[in-house]
Automatic annotation (TrEMBL):
<feature type="domain" description="Glycosyltransferase subfamily 4-like N-terminal">
    <location>
        <begin position="34"/>
        <end position="200"/>
    </location>
</feature>
<keyword id="KW-0808">Transferase</keyword>
<dbReference type="GO" id="GO:0016757">
    <property type="term" value="F:glycosyltransferase activity"/>
</dbReference>
<dbReference type="Pfam" id="PF13439">
    <property type="entry name" value="Glyco_transf_4"/>
</dbReference>
<protein>
    <submittedName>
        <fullName>Glycosyltransferase family 1 protein</fullName>
    </submittedName>
</protein>
<dbReference type="Pfam" id="PF13692">
    <property type="entry name" value="Glyco_trans_1_4"/>
</dbReference>
<dbReference type="InterPro" id="IPR028098">
    <property type="entry name" value="Glyco_trans_4-like_N"/>
</dbReference>
<dbReference type="InterPro" id="IPR050194">
    <property type="entry name" value="Glycosyltransferase_grp1"/>
</dbReference>
Length: 402
């Protein structure tokens, strides 16, 4: 049997509290592209390694990944997702991967995407009596409605339920999303793995008027920003419809779009007067966000809302859908506005208030920045480590009692 039940120290040990812990992490997209989920996973692995744990990551690899992976990465068989070639779908646990996994002898298996390889990893772990933690990063069940296939949602929800119920516990990025998972009966052991924000990158001092000018944005322009991958499930239709409402009402504003994706041509055609600044990363991303005057995030697929938190850290008020993620971050009428999903006229009215009232932007932006100070990456990632240790102890107790 794998060395799953080797002794491990308690999580409150003062020096290297995770020394001896071995974690096998399965990711559908660890560093192939850049998104909130894989950034969070890489930060988690970096934290675990600094605390003395051993981590082995199993994920697809490509010749030219978006960034260098944190930790040891083992390539798993995969294929490009049709129509979304920037993502790859792990397709199997090959004999080579299984041998590597057995040699590593993890004490806990962490799956972060309900793909084929993760299903196989869950079965592999269950046969060996290993605890399994699943992190849930996105509202996969809502995706079909953006591609005129809403009839698929019940079947997809059932498939997700089968996957997550085979895991010992879940971690979700926000309490609002955790409650959705409970209501859907995905699992009943759900902890919170929130998200942090890098204050060196995201803060109001990053605002750069000269950069704005280089994009054709005047100092007195009120800039409504979009930040994220340009895919329909991010609410691009609602965003553009609300902007149309502002234009028809004669509300002076400018739109700044940060991000790339397969729906860029569609979005460009819908917003011909917008400034598309493309992908921004690191300090450039912090500059771009801080140079907005309001962030508009109409997406309902977010489980946390990294972009919302990043805007708040930059002192930028947020207009967001009252959905999982943002509603755990934004205090309505204090640091931003939470609007009924899809309510275009209400979104437009909230944006109008910010466009026309500089004092309101300043006050709500300051409140958002104060709220963002609560999100420390180390504290947040330790919560996941504590969940690993709890699951290992519980599994040992059940085995001893059985």
């Amino acid at each position: 049997m794998a060395r799953a039940m080797d002794p491990i120290p308690e999580s409150n040990t003062s020096v290297a509290p995770l020394s001896g812990l071995r974690v096998a992490l399965f990711s559908g997209n660890y560093n192939v592209t850049v998104d909130g989920a894989n950034r969070a996973l890489n930060r988690l692995v970096g934290y675990l390694l600094r605390q003395g744990a051993q981590v082995r990551v199993y994920a697809p690899t490509v010749a030219n990944p978006a960034f260098e992976p944190t930790g040891d990465l083992v390539s798993v068989p995969s294929f490009a997702i049709p129509g979304r070639a920037e993502y790859r779908l792990p397709s199997a646990l090959s004999p080579r991967v299984r041998r590597d996994l057995a040699a590593f002898a993890p004490q806990v298996v962490h799956v972060s995407s309900p793909d084929i390889a993760a299903h196989r990893a869950v079965s592999w772990a269950r046969r060996r009596g290993l605890p399994i933690l699943a992190s849930v990063h996105t509202r996969f069940d809502t995706y079909p409605r953006y591609y005129n296939m809403a009839w698929l949602e019940p079947a997809l929800t059932a498939l997700l339920r089968r996957f997550y119920r085979r895991c010992d516990a879940l971690v979700a990025p926000s309490e609002s999303f955790a409650q959705v998972l409970r209501d859907q009966r995905m699992n009943y052991d759900i902890d919170i793995w929130s998200r942090g924000v890098d204050r060196d990158v995201f803060n109001p001092r990053r605002r750069d008027l000269s950069w704005r000018r280089s994009l054709g944005l005047a100092d007195d322009d009120v800039v409504i920003g979009f930040l994220g991958r340009l895919v329909m499930e991010k609410g691009l239709d609602v965003f553009s419809d609300a902007i149309d409402q502002l234009s028809r009402r004669g509300i002076a504003h400018k739109v700044l779009v940060i991000g790339e994706g397969p729906a860029r041509d569609w979005f460009t055609a819908r917003l011909p007067d917008a400034v598309f600044a493309g992908f921004q990363g690191g300090a450039d991303l912090g500059r771009a966000v801080a140079s907005m005057d309001v962030l508009f995030n109409p997406s309902i697929t977010e489980t946390f809302g990294n972009v919302t938190l990043e805007a708040m850290a930059c002192g930028v008020p947020v207009v967001a859908a009252a959905a999982t993620g943002s509603q755990s971050l934004v205090d309505d009428h204090i640091s931003g506005r939470l609007i009924t999903p899809g309510a275009v006229r209400q979104f437009a009215e909230a944006l109008r208030c910010y466009v026309e009232d500089a004092d309101l932007r300043t006050a709500h932006g300051a409140a958002g920045e104060a709220r963002s100070l609560e999100f420390s990456w180390d504290r947040i990632n330790q919560a996941v480590a504590d969940t690993y240790l709890r699951l290992i102890r519980q599994k040992k107790q059940r085995m001893a009692g059985g």
